[in-house]
Amino acid sequence: MIRETNGQGQLLIGGIPAEDLASAYGTPLYVYDVERIRSNAKAFVDTFKKHKIPAQVAYASKAFSSVAMLQVAKEEGLSLDVVSEGELHTALQAEFPVEKIHMHGNNKSLSELEMAVDHKIGCIVVDNFYEIALLTDLLAEKNTQMDVLLRVTPGIEAHTHDYILTGQEDSKFGFDLSSGQAEKAFQLLNANEMTNVKGLHCHIGSQIFETSGFTLATKKLFETMSDWRNRFEFTADVLNLGGGFGIQYTEEDDPLALDQYALALIEEVKHQSEILEYTMPEIWIEPGRAIVGDAGVTLYRMGSIKEIPGVRTYASVDGGMTDNIRPALYHAKYDAVLANKMHESPDQEYAIAGKCCESGDMLLWDVKLPKVEPKDLMAVFSTGAYGYAMSNNYNRFGKSAVVFVENGEHQLVVRREDYKEITRLDLSYNQQ
Ligand code: LLP
């Protein structure tokens, strides 16, 4: 991983010394290199363009949603995947083109569906039979039509380094292909005049490095589409292959370049279209992590240091599982440096602790750093996806601020939550 450093041994983010950002905005601080967000988006978009494949690259906004982020996504010509009223509201605030918004969710509420229908979003990815009933009743009541995709589970469960094949997918999401559920759902939607079935959707997992899971899913979906063409005279206009493209967190991770993921999909889609003589559908993908993950860095100020002789040395930061719950939740690994000591050799091992009242609140268990002293500035890399998005107010800590950096300039895009704002929703209890 390349780290930009200036002559004073300071880490640079988008050309700006990390210390300047930390001094200006405080810590913990999420910093995004916007050029990186743009180049990640372009890697997908340009690959489809180059190969003349009609496509939509939908940013999965669950990875990091804020008005500024969605403005950048809009500028890059991305579509958008939302899963809640909050994510849709953020998109509307960012004036995201509604026809490019898709809504997901395994238990969409009536009010979520209503919001999507009323704002005429591009498409709803239908997930289950309960939703079909809610949606078709709603559309009939409003006498309006909606484009839908059918989310299916192709029986492929992908992990970072491999995938497992199961006959029937044990997942809370989507309609199972092997048991005939998907076909039944298709028939219900296809027969309903208010729902226009555009095609199929699948998402096989997240942080996937190998293309074999994606290509196998593509093959399975094409086989289903071909079967339905023959039996129901249905031709899919859209094939949505979901997100999940893996990124590098530590040196141990060896992901593909983003255009290579797109290329693998393109090749398989072309191949399947040819052998099944299927008119090439529009290809949609939904990357979240791959767009924002490696564009984000979190800055922390170091505080207390506790050495347990012969065991380990704990060094605490001024954040933790409130701004990054991934290590506690998934044992996720990260790489970190001391942003103010880039010229010093990282020859000491530390366990980096958060400040929440919980022993499991650890950010990194074993990272090599130069000697840590209070007030040093630590930078944790690749925190752009599912960091701010999953941040929380445990111990009533306020959420951290977000800063965008581009063209040598920095700009606050999400304000820090002040501790006084923590009680803004609280009401006092007056006992009668
Ligand atoms: N599409 C669908 C239907 C999804 O469920 C997801 C992620 C994505 C796209 C985007 O996946 P990505 O490209 O970001 O891998 N909180 C976890 C990740 C959960 C992903 C959930 N769905 C984490 O921090 O690793």
From TrEMBL:
<keyword id="KW-0028">Amino-acid biosynthesis</keyword>
<dbReference type="InterPro" id="IPR022643">
    <property type="entry name" value="De-COase2_C"/>
</dbReference>
<dbReference type="InterPro" id="IPR009006">
    <property type="entry name" value="Ala_racemase/Decarboxylase_C"/>
</dbReference>
<feature type="binding site">
    <location>
        <begin position="286"/>
        <end position="289"/>
    </location>
    <ligand>
        <name>pyridoxal 5'-phosphate</name>
    </ligand>
</feature>
<feature type="binding site">
    <location>
        <position position="386"/>
    </location>
    <ligand>
        <name>pyridoxal 5'-phosphate</name>
    </ligand>
</feature>
<feature type="binding site">
    <location>
        <position position="289"/>
    </location>
    <ligand>
        <name>substrate</name>
    </ligand>
</feature>
<dbReference type="InterPro" id="IPR000183">
    <property type="entry name" value="Orn/DAP/Arg_de-COase"/>
</dbReference>
<dbReference type="GO" id="GO:0008836">
    <property type="term" value="F:diaminopimelate decarboxylase activity"/>
</dbReference>
<comment type="pathway">
    <text>Amino-acid biosynthesis; L-lysine biosynthesis via DAP pathway; L-lysine from DL-2,6-diaminopimelate: step 1/1.</text>
</comment>
<dbReference type="InterPro" id="IPR029066">
    <property type="entry name" value="PLP-binding_barrel"/>
</dbReference>
<feature type="binding site">
    <location>
        <position position="330"/>
    </location>
    <ligand>
        <name>substrate</name>
    </ligand>
</feature>
<keyword id="KW-0663">Pyridoxal phosphate</keyword>
<feature type="domain" description="Orn/DAP/Arg decarboxylase 2 N-terminal">
    <location>
        <begin position="36"/>
        <end position="293"/>
    </location>
</feature>
<keyword id="KW-0457">Lysine biosynthesis</keyword>
<protein>
    <recommendedName>
        <fullName>Diaminopimelate decarboxylase</fullName>
        <ecNumber>4.1.1.20</ecNumber>
    </recommendedName>
</protein>
<dbReference type="Pfam" id="PF02784">
    <property type="entry name" value="Orn_Arg_deC_N"/>
</dbReference>
<dbReference type="InterPro" id="IPR022644">
    <property type="entry name" value="De-COase2_N"/>
</dbReference>
<feature type="domain" description="Orn/DAP/Arg decarboxylase 2 C-terminal">
    <location>
        <begin position="30"/>
        <end position="384"/>
    </location>
</feature>
<dbReference type="InterPro" id="IPR002986">
    <property type="entry name" value="DAP_deCOOHase_LysA"/>
</dbReference>
<dbReference type="InterPro" id="IPR022653">
    <property type="entry name" value="De-COase2_pyr-phos_BS"/>
</dbReference>
<feature type="binding site">
    <location>
        <position position="358"/>
    </location>
    <ligand>
        <name>substrate</name>
    </ligand>
</feature>
<keyword id="KW-0456">Lyase</keyword>
<keyword id="KW-0210">Decarboxylase</keyword>
<feature type="binding site">
    <location>
        <position position="244"/>
    </location>
    <ligand>
        <name>pyridoxal 5'-phosphate</name>
    </ligand>
</feature>
<feature type="binding site">
    <location>
        <position position="386"/>
    </location>
    <ligand>
        <name>substrate</name>
    </ligand>
</feature>
<comment type="subunit">
    <text>Homodimer.</text>
</comment>
<dbReference type="Pfam" id="PF00278">
    <property type="entry name" value="Orn_DAP_Arg_deC"/>
</dbReference>
<comment type="similarity">
    <text>Belongs to the Orn/Lys/Arg decarboxylase class-II family. LysA subfamily.</text>
</comment>
<feature type="modified residue" description="N6-(pyridoxal phosphate)lysine">
    <location>
        <position position="62"/>
    </location>
</feature>
<feature type="binding site">
    <location>
        <position position="326"/>
    </location>
    <ligand>
        <name>substrate</name>
    </ligand>
</feature>
<comment type="function">
    <text>Specifically catalyzes the decarboxylation of meso-diaminopimelate (meso-DAP) to L-lysine.</text>
</comment>
